[in-house]
Amino acid sequence: MKDETSQEQRHRVAIAILHQDGKFLLQLRDDIPGIFYPGHWALFGGHIEPGESPDEAMQRELREEIGYAPATLNQFALYEDTQVVRYVYHGELDVDVSQLVLHEGWDMALATSEEIGQGDRYSQQAKQRRPLGKPHQRILLDFMARSG
């Protein structure tokens, strides 16, 4: 008997690769046990609500988390594993990071391709290096490879 988890039983999330001048906006997730990737750098986004499309969820999540969403977000890829279905979007961050207001998470920053490759980044708020969530690192590495 196959052990299959249907898409309906997995968490469905929409996440965004927001890039500016060759760097990528990351959120340092709260260091709270029980959440996915506590204390890790991750892409902004979140759960898709019942009846909501991934596109709608992406816009809502960005506005909730940083008070901003780019005028244009394009679908990048779909990543699925046994627990999560990730709808990944990408768009240009066309405002300065200082204009964003962090409503969720511990810190935010633009990460370089080198930091993404090494899998960690220093946080001004935490005053220490923190790891990237492995799925988020993989997505960003894929994006960098495909976009040249």
Automatic annotation (TrEMBL):
Any matching Pfam family: NUDIX
Superkingdom: Bacteria
An MF annotation (GO) of this entry: hydrolase activity
Keywords, comma-separated and alphabetical: Hydrolase
Cofactor(s) for this UniProt protein: Mg(2+)
Domain annotation Nudix hydrolase: ranges: 9-145
PANTHER family linked: GDP-MANNOSE MANNOSYL HYDROLASE, MUTT_NUDIX FAMILY PROTEIN
Recorded family membership: Belongs to the Nudix hydrolase family.
UniProt-recorded name of the protein: NUDIX hydrolase
Organism: Stenomitos frigidus ULC18
